[in-house]
Amino acid sequence: MDRDRSDLLQRELTVASELAIEAGARILRYLDGALEVGHKERGEVVTPADRESDRLIRHGLAAAFPADAIFSEETADSPDRLANPRVWIVDPLDGTSNFIARGDEFSVSIGLALEGKPVVGVIYNPTRRELYAGRVGLGMTVNALAAKVSIAGDIASARLSVSRKEVAELRGLLPCGELVPISSMAYKMARVAAGMEDGVMSKKRRKEWGSCAGAALVQAAGGKVSLLDGAEIRFNRAERLQALGMVAAGPALHSLLLAALRPLLAEQK
After folding, report:
1. Is 148 left (phi over 0), alpha (psi -120 to 50) or beta?
2. Tens digits of per-residue pLDDT, 102-132?
3. Is residue 51 scored above 60 in pLDDT?
4. How far apart are CA 235 and CA 124, in angstroms?
5. At 154, is the secondary structure helix, strand, or coil?
6. For residue range 61-74, what is the model confidence (pLDDT) as tens digits?
7. CA 6 to chain centre
8. How far apart are CA 69 and CA 96, in angstroms?
9. pLDDT value at 1 more than 60
10. CB contact at 8 A, 111 and 132
11. Between the CA atoms of 65, 14, 96 and 180, what dihedral angle is there, to the nearest 10 degrees?
12. Among the listed residues 164, 152, 175, the one whose alpha carbon sits nearest the alpha carbon of residue 249
């Protein structure tokens, strides 16, 4: 790898990590008082913390990488991003409902897609002070310590993370060792990348903002990420939602989960 490319990779991770940590610190300040809660057009909740985090991250990325596009949940979309090969895909506060409930599972998610493929991921849980950072091909770390996906290869003993809204249905499909409900999709994927859980799946069609960084981390950590039919997940698309739900795990478990979740495909196609 040439020196210029190596320097860019390190700068991408450093800038995204610093922004995620600073955004997380600002988010936590809002927990000191009463929370102002609003609703977006589709009824999703939003708070001033979401918007301040969004401004901080967008301004920081634009200053560091002025030629790149930025696609953030809390900013109006621009079709111009579709023609840009480098797009930062940001969820400034993934798990807003958990944040409003003063939980500890919300996160800041900053991912970079190159020609539609997730390549850089930084996810920060400010309450637990956990920073997950990685680059596909270069590995990933948790608070600067190297980490990898688990080597689990058996659903019956696997520890799997899911949305609380999907626990009941997925429990019937997946006779696994444990289903762990966690609020933020980004945080679920980060934990799987670090081997804290063996896999994560979602019946729900996911938005890009909360899954791009996580997809990059899982792959950087040696795992696999796909849609429920096994197709590669692509980012910086015109559509708001992915075509299907998704699965992420270590290589051996990933194929087993796809087979077990096949009944869900009929519902989504």
Report:
1. beta
2. 999 999 999 999 999 999 999 999 999 999 9
3. yes
4. 21
5. coil
6. 999 999 999 999 99
7. 24
8. 24
9. no
10. no
11. 130
12. 152
